[in-house]
Amino acid sequence: MIDVTHQINAVRRRVGTRVLEAGEARVVTISQTYDATIDDVWDACTNAERIERWFLPISGELRLHGHYQLEGNAGGTIQQCDPPKSFTATWEYGGDVSWIEVRLSADPEGGTRFELEHISHVDDERWAEFGPGAVGIGWDMGLVGLATHLSSGAAVDPQEGAAWAASEEGKRFMSLSSQRWSEASIAAGTDPEQARAAAQRTMAAYTAEPSE
Prior knowledge:
The protein has a single domain, classed as START domain (Alpha-D-Glucose-1,6-Bisphosphate, Chain A, domain 4). The model has no long low-confidence stretch (mean pLDDT about 95). With about 210 residues, the chain is α+β, with helices and mostly antiparallel strands. The protein has an eight-stranded antiparallel β-sheet. Helix 6 crosses helix 7 and helix 7 (about 170-185) packs antiparallel against helix 8 (about 190-205). It has helices at about 5-10, 40-45, 50-55, 125-130, 135-150, 160-165, 170-185, 190-205, and strands at about 10-20, 25-35, 60, 65-70, 75-80, 85-95, 95-105, 110-120. It is globular and about 45 Å long.
């Protein structure tokens, strides 16, 4: 499906905090530069027909103040939109509300830099248990789809994607992603032993066999 080592190394990951009206929030940032124009990347991220080709089927109104719903996943409201540079939206799932901010910019070395921030209020106990990889691995998997789509123009077959994620190669990708998010957490000040333990728990959750 994709060169695992190349994709892992192509992505930049950062962990931080931000103070919101409701208090301090955790911020997970993921970015990658693509060999594509900013208009093409923008269209891939905001056109419902193309989002389905690399991420998930999406319904709703993809416009300012419109509501969207990803099939079997999060929904929310688009709060800000500045084509083709940025948009922000709520990310509502399982009764929790967080936020995503997507920014596109020209990379000095060519291509378009995609950056996504996922901002959420996570209690200390839950953060200590799973760390940034809880959402970070999922976004890493999303960027695999985007990279594949932008490089080939083809749609990512959901069944093939699920089979790849369950394969040894897919598990190796998630393991490397979990490790890199652990390193980002340590760089942000987390105790190394705690960060690595959280990464192991997150990886176990992602690779657990579904119950019948």
